[in-house]
Design a protein that fits this description.
With about 250 residues, this protein is an alpha/beta fold. It has helices at about 80-85, 120-130, 135-140, 160-170, 195-200, 220-235, and strands at about 5-15, 20-25, 40-45, 55-60, 70-75, 95-100, 110-120, 145-150, 175-180, 190, 210-220, 240-245. It has 2 domains: about 5-100, Translation factors (Elongation Factor Tu (Ef-tu), domain 3, Beta Barrel); about 110-245, Rossmann fold (3-Layer(aba) Sandwich), CATH 3.40.50.80. The protein contains 6 helices and 12 strands.
Amino acid sequence: MVERRIYAARLDDAHWLSDQTRHLYFRVPEIDRFDFIAGQFVSMQAPHHDGKTVTRAYSIASAPRPDNTFDVCLNRVDGGFFSNLLCDLELGRDVKFHGPHGHFVMREPPRDSLLIGTGTGIAPLRGMLEWLFADPSRYEGRRFWLIYGTRHEKDIYYQEQFEQYAREHPQEFQYIITISRPKETWTGRKGYVQDRIREVLADYPDQGRGHMDTYICGLKDMVVGTRQMLIEEFGWDKKTVMFERFD
């Protein structure tokens, strides 16, 4: 059995996406290039006060770069050891990790696709979209929809970036936000991601759905419910519905 190599990720930069959600920009000083596939995750490790090592998986929130950096975003969880450690991590400090891991990656060549995320489930989808729009051969002649759902407007992450993609690639990309608990001042779409999926597919030719893929990431109930809807209600092949879920 090959022993996993443990790296040190150094926090180079960070900012808050909301009052409880932080975006972290890591560098791996001991290597020149950190190779991964957009959508994969890393497993971070830290010693707990009881002497045990705690390991938590975090999706990479960026596309591969020609260097040794990667991004992560996460929510602060009350009483969560690792989420508080990372949310309070100071610039220049290290955290141990191994990876990359995971098979939640885009098929190549990409096909018309729905990307569906809620909350910090947007992280691997952001990486996929950065990868897509870095090379015209990956997106030209295809259509992609990012359907993002959250309870509150304050938790719409990376909105400016995705709106820019939509402006620059109007034929290929549509960005759809839906809020389940909006304020009265919210004028956008309301409800759940499943409602928005039905709207998109209502305008998409039935005969073409066999040539589409879906990538879903978020809390377990959303992922399970959305996957079940696509398979049972719309007749999608299970192999075309990729997902990553967390509790």
